[in-house]
Target: Cytochrome c oxidase subunit 2
Amino acid sequence: MTLLAILTVLLVILVAWQLIRISELSAAIKKEDVTGLPDHKENDIQGKLLLGFLVLFIIGFVYTVVEWGPRVLPKPASVHGEKTDFLFYLSLGIITLAFLITQPLLFYFSYKYRGIKGQKASYMEHNNKLELIWTLVPGFVLVVLISYGLSTWVKIMNPKFEEDPIVIELYAKQFGWTARIAGEDNKLGYANVRYIEDVNILGIDKNDPNGLDDIVVQNLIKIPVNKPIKLKMRSQDVIHSAYLPHFRVQMNCVPGAVTEFSFIPTKTTAEMRQDPKVIKQVEHINKLREAKGEDKYEFNYVLLCNKICGSAHYNMQMIFEVVSEDEYKNWLKEQKTFAQSL
Model:
């Protein structure tokens, strides 16, 4: 069947080529123009259409920025998030500037130099100066952006904190999250999927003393503001992606491996709810939910999965509540340790 399909395709190509040859020979006998070049009237129409498209193009761009600009994430709620946002907006600014210069010129020149009567194009074979400019300038910009990006990435992935970070494990599986906070020793006990049974949903080794004081939570976890947090991530089944957008945190959770990401939250949940941009976004969301007859939404930091990991992917949500250090300590005292839950 495969051979037959290949032969059929080749036959179709051969027939098409023969038909084109017959058409060319027929036109040559009749002395017809077979170049397919449009006449001056068509050029004029096409040029004006391109100019009109340019106008619509710019209107669409402005509308997109005005309409969807307010929907982007508010200011980051983490220390490193300010660096990533600066890099993002720097790159976006350069791209937007290049777009607003090159695209209007592209369509305008297509209109201005269209082939019409009384207008003859000038022939220019080569221009070393222009070639040098449009090669060196983008090259220089890319070198600067890439160098700055790599430097920023290294600092984010190898942070230097003034105090030891709170160690928290994020355990991903289809379709939910479980978190494990290191106990007083700030060390997570060894865990393996083979040890999963009954209440031991993370497979913590019962013989490892480091794991007995660990605290396992689901649905909601509280973390203290302005304190370094080290997330250690595992996956039980497929590749997931731990994504905390407002903290600008994202890292894949890979089966059989432990990945890490550290950050410092800078705004409590209560403070974030008072952010003017967050207030407007929540109002917009609640208008849509009200129209559907759904309950009102209240802002929370939410852990999401940023991989399409299966049919119930959307269910992978866990609330991260950022609170004061005292509130965090009080909440921690209320939680059961792994040893107490056995």
